[in-house]
Specification:
The chain is α/β, with parallel strands linked by helices. It has 3 domains: about 240 residues, Aminohydrolase, N-terminal nucleophile (Ntn) domain (Glutamine Phosphoribosylpyrophosphate, subunit 1, domain 1); about 200 residues, Rossmann fold (3-Layer(aba) Sandwich), CATH 3.40.50.10490; about 150 residues, Glucose-6-phosphate isomerase like protein, domain 1 (Rossmann fold, 3-Layer(aba) Sandwich). Helices cover about 35% and strands about 25% of the residues. The protein is built from 20 helices and 27 strands. The strands form 5 sheets. An 8-stranded antiparallel sheet has the order 3-2-4-1-10-9-11-15, with helices on one face. A 7-stranded antiparallel sheet has the order 5-6-7-8-12-13-14, with helices on one face. Helix 7 packs parallel to helix 13, helix 7 runs antiparallel to helix 15 and helix 16 packs across helix 20. Bound molecules: 5-amino-5-deoxy-1-O-phosphono-D-mannitol. The site of 5-amino-5-deoxy-1-O-phosphono-D-mannitol (M6R) has 16 residues, from helix 9.
């Protein structure tokens, strides 16, 4: 969603803010703005990208050692100059940037209007700025900090905010409820951001704000409180992200870099957890929850988008190997449908960002009902790992491209490890099969490297489909979620309509769509459904559809049937999702690039969806 950046210290704030906004732009990119404080507060904001903001302020006064910046993903009000943040209160006392949604903004706004306030923008953020000011001006003796606290007490919804006050302009106030905020700790300086990416080049020491916490920050001092005014001891943590991980490193796009990083990302996911030598998989993060998981009557997997697809793969594998019944739900549906959750249920919440609002709300609901909740997350220190009883980090490294790639394969890797580890613990997998599976899993990074060598071939092939209007993706069993993921990747970055279907379902409806213009991507590697998928390909060809088949190396049968084939190395069926998704990621990437789409920042999307 929106990205927040801030600075207070002795350095010029502007370069820190503008570079920080560039690093955060993946979170939201419809407008951007900054406020610089140097005795007075100067605000510059405009519709468009951070580069538009940079041009806009090129000849302006950029001095100031205190400042804040914001890159927006519109929720209230269309993307334009006026709705861009920062927002200044009516009488100019407060400057605010905000990530999240203030749900009762309308009621608050009407009250403020009755009290003489008028509004320039359509945003909920301007309501908050005016509310703080209104409370402050009613009794200036209460001071800035109390005014902010009292205003936040009236807000329903989610926020991560930075507030600057004209009358006391030597500090910034940061507060959080539901929307992430990290504070970087330097020497006589502090950095603020919605995630650590803009901070790592300045300091590795950070404080993660928790919900209902606020920090009152001067350049040499940080005071942490609850919004009920209880003083807290800040906990400074060290982050383990290097600068290369958040740069493109010679690739045209983050997405391409992240696709190519998958062999190393999966090795990082394995590290210290999978040992061929000891014939063992061990996920230490599950340790405390294992007694509950082992006797669980049911596992419920929740997630959104790509993480939900990973969950579907997990369902197949956990049922197959751990023999525990699994249900997979969209977190956004689960949280609102009064689900039956028992104390002997285990909920696995999957999320790259660890900040997805729907997933967080679903976790809270599951906890309230007494379930044990386990997280599978990529971003260390994010909200979901802090909300869950136990969990496993995917360790894929920062994923900046909005379309998830390496996070998906890392999530599937964790779920595969989980299924095998539980299967073994519960006595469902014999030692020889266990070793065979460990070997199959360990060989995945190398096999992905082989697939990545075909990138040029896939690029060439994708040129045939630059002008396609629709795509169908088919897969069976554990490869059906991969079909869904392939379709999602294409939709989100190329804006071509695509649908994923279980191959056998095609004849129940989607087959009506097939004609000589319809590309059909079929995931058809050699497994127990192979013969049936071959029949599905024949059905598509009989209706003149264009078949692009993902096949096992050396498959001559499908090569003779399909229009195009992309080969993946032979592997155990259980790890096929990790291999077959790679060509689908590359296919979408090259089609989107050929169509001139902004691959890393597709229209209307944001990397972490911290609003409902
Ligand atoms: O950070 P999360 O994994 O919780 O995000 C969930 C979805 O928003 C995310 O997977 C989204 O669908 C991606 N854009 C997919 O590429």
């Amino acid at each position: 969603m929106c990205g927040i950046v801030g600075y207070i210290g002795n350095k010029d704030a502007y370069p820190i803010l503008i570079n920080g906004l560039k690093r955060l732009e993946y979170r939201g990119y419809d407008s951007a703005g900054i406020a610089l404080i140097n005795g007075e507060t100067r605000t510059y904001k405009c519709k468009g990208k951070v580069s538009d903001l940079e041009n806009f302020v090129a000849n302006q006064d950029k001095s100031g050692n205190i400042g804040m910046g914001h890159t927006r993903w519109a929720t209230h009000g269309e993307p334009n100059d006026v709705n861009a943040h920062p927002h200044i209160s009516l009488h100019g006392h407060f400057t605010v940037i905000h990530n999240g949604i203030i749900e009762n903004y309308d009621v608050l706004k009407r009250d403020l209007i009755k009290n003489g306030y008028s509004f320039k923008s359509e945003t909920d953020t301007e309501v908050l700025a005016n509310l703080i000011e209104y409370i402050y001006l009613k009794d200036e003796k209460i001071g800035v900090e109390t005014a902010v606290r009292l205003a936040l007490g009236k807000v329903i919804g989610a926020y991560g905010i930075l507030v600057a006050a004209k009358q006391e302009n030597n500090f910034l106030i940061a507060a959080r409820k539901g929307s992430p905020l990290v504070i970087g700790v330097g020497e006589g300086e502090y950095y603020f951001a919605s995630d650590a990416t803009p901070i790592v080049e300045h300091t590795k020491s950070v404080i993660y704000l928790d919900d209902d916490h606020m920090a009152i920050v001067e350049k040499n001092n940080l005071m942490l409180k609850t919004i009920h005014n209880d003083l807290l001891e800040p906990e400074v943590k060290q982050i383990d992200i290097n600068i290369e991980a958040i740069e493109k490193g010679g690739y045209d796009h983050f997405m391409l870099k992240e696709i190519f990083e998958q062999p190393s990302a999966i090795r990082d996911t394995f590290r210290g957890r999978v040992s061929e030598r000891h014939n063992r998989i061990y996920l230490g993060g599950l340790h405390t929850a294992l007694p509950k998981i082992n006797v669980a009557k049911r596992i419920i997997i929740i997630g959104c988008g790509t993480s939900w697809h990973a969950g579907l793969v997990g369902e197949y594998l956990l049922e197959e190997y751990a023999r525990i019944p699994v249900e997979v739900e969209y977190a956004s549906e689960f949280r609102y449908r009064n689900p039956i959750i028992n104390e002997d249920d285990v909920v696995i919440a999957i999320s790259q960002s660890g900040e997805t609002a729907d997933t967080l709300a679903a976790i809270k609901l599951a906890k309230e009902k007494g379930a044990t909740v386990v997280g599978v997350c990529n971003v260390v220190g994010s909200s979901i790992p802090r909300e869950t009883h136990a969990g496993v980090y995917t360790h894929a490294g920062p994923e900046i491209g909005v379309a998830s790639t390496k996070a998906f394969t890392a999530q599937v890797t964790v779920l595969t490890m989980m299924a095998l580890m539980l299967g073994r613990e519960r006595g469902n997998i014999k030692a020889d099969l266990y070793l065979q599976m460990i070997k199959a899993l360990s060989a995945v990074p190398e096999k992905i490297e082989v697939i990545l060598k075909q990138a040029d071939l896939i690029k060439e092939l994708s040129a045939q489909f630059t002008n396609a209007h629709n795509f169908i993706y088919l897969g069976r069993g554990v490869l059906f979620p991969v079909a869904l993921e392939g379709a999602l990747k294409l939709k989100e970055i190329s804006y071509i309509h695509a649908e994923g279907y279980p191959a056998a379902e095609m004849k129940h409806g989607p087959i009506a769509l097939i004609d000589e213009k319809m590309p059909v991507v079929v995931i058809a590697t050699k497994d127990k459904s192979y013969e049936k998928v071959v029949s599905n390909i024949q059905e598509v060809k009989a209706r003149k559809g264009i078949v692009i088949a993902i096949v096992t190396q050396g498959d001559h049968v499908i090569r003779n049937l399909a229009d195009y084939v992309i080969e993946v190395p032979d592997s155990h069926e259980a790890v096929a999702p990790l291999l077959t998704v790679i060509p689908l990621q590359l296919l979408s990437y090259y089609i989107a690039v050929a169509r001139g789409c902004n691959v890393d920042q597709p229209r209307n999307l944001a990397k972490s969806v911290t609003v409902e």
